[in-house]
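Tokens for PAS domain S-box-containing protein/diguanylate cyclase (GGDEF)-like protein. Go.
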Amino acid sequence: MSRTRRHDAASRWIRGAVALVYLMLAVTNLLALSGPGRTVMTLLDSATAVAMGVAAFSRRPGRRGEWLALLPIIDSVALVVVTGRLHYSTTLMLTLLGVGAAVTSRRVMAAAIVLGCGGFGVTVLAQSHPTGPELAYYSVQVAFAALIGVLLQEALRRRQGQLRRAHEKVRMVADRFEQLFNASPSGVAIADGDGRVVAANPAFCELVGRPETDVVGADVSPYLPEGVDEGELPVVRPDGSTRWAYLTIGNSVVGGQPWTLVQLQDVTDRHLAEEKARDSDRLLAAVAAAARRIRTGEDARTTIIAAVRDLAAADNVSLLEPVIKDGTAREVVVTDVAGADVIGTRVPLDGTSMIARVYRSGEPIFLADPASDPRVSAALLKMVDGKSMLWQPVVAEGRVIGVLAVGWRRRVETVSDYRTRAVGLLADETALALEHEKLLRRLERMAFTDSLTALPNRRAWQEAMDRMLADAEQSGEPLTVAIADLDHFKRYNDTYGHAAGDELLQRTAAAFSAGLRDEDFLARWGGEEFVFVLPSTGAEQAVTVLDRMRAALPDAQTCSVGVATWDSRETLAQLLQRADDAMYAAKAAGRDRVHAATDERRAVRNPAARNPAA
């Protein structure tokens, strides 16, 4: 029974008990009270009993049913109101204690306290109750009952939390044991004192060549040669094939009953020592080659795919990687291949294809006859001429980041355990290569990107300029550089704070980027300065473009822009110096303008434009 169902059963029992109590109270008040008070309390108690009874028989009362706890509070307050006697507040005290011990919701408990204590207070103020020791006594008792109710409710919540955590821990341990048992590469079976198999993991069933339904419940003795407790032995499968396994037997007594643990470790490859040694050398060479390429930052995909093809004796191997859109992988695409012409082929992940299944489950699948399986795309099989297929997930840190599709143009009845492990190991190397490449790209972006505005930084600008100067020299097209500096940015920071200043820089970067062409280049030079590179653009055209962007700055912010067009002879430093001088000339001329550099390469700067308030 789940925790929720147990909680509902307990809640129904409590509500039923409360319904019975209030039914008895209705009878008691009918007999004990007189006048209007008898009628009012009999009706209220009866209504409460009915409501609680209905909730008790409800199949799914839910957590919202705890709000029914306010009904007894209302009855208790009403009893004091209609009788006008303070000693009836004892019922309210007991009800507060009961609510604290029965409900788990802090909101319901708070509402009960407010309703109970508040109702008691309003009743005392509205009626002419004694103002002496009696009133003080009952007031303190009600408050004390409310406090005890809160403490009881908090103790209940903590106890339930402890029980829930203990239950979850036990369930987690059981789940982990089951997962380890089922995922163990060694065949494991457990037999009872009568020699019957009560549990067997998939590896055991696979090794003995029998389905679980045939193994569980059958006699364990066929797997336990007489007089052998440990050692190698042949396992003859129903299909006539023979596997070699290393047998380990463990005996124990649990609960007064003997149990036997049978472990079969597949060691067939030990009998294929020569082939295994040769394959091991090839695998190590492939892993070493992949590792070398990974360390040097090269793309290791081709090396790994070629190694998988060689070790699996396959005809073609494809690597499919996810295409991420809006943070979600909706399809995979073939990024590298050996032995087939399928580069760029895309497979959706929202379907029932075998590739989608392996990507979602993270488990490898081998099919000796994939053409007979409707989950395998006939079109893809035709493209690779696949008669048998193996799909191996590429997993990194518990996430599937790709799929290796291994195909044979001949029918392969089974893939040896060693070759399967080799493909799995190379899949791990593939994961390492892909993650290494992703890390390098991320580090490269970090090294060349300004963290505040997400624009290229000065280092990225330097590399871009070297390339763009070379292109301009070869093509003969003009190349213009501009430096923009926000006016009075220090004063803006002092007035609105640095957070607002950072936001202004981000919005300025967005405004500048929106006005550029794809071939233009924008970088944050530092502080409040931005640098533009406009290829195939002369000074006059650049001034027009930059003036339009200057006018589009957010919050009526202004900037001063200096423009310089490369004369095809000066160095990059000289070109940048002219743009910088032009920018300070714009500052000196009153700011909020675009100024083109003169033909003089070293104009005299205005010292006044160097003040920090620029």
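Confidence is low (pLDDT under 50) at residues 600-614.
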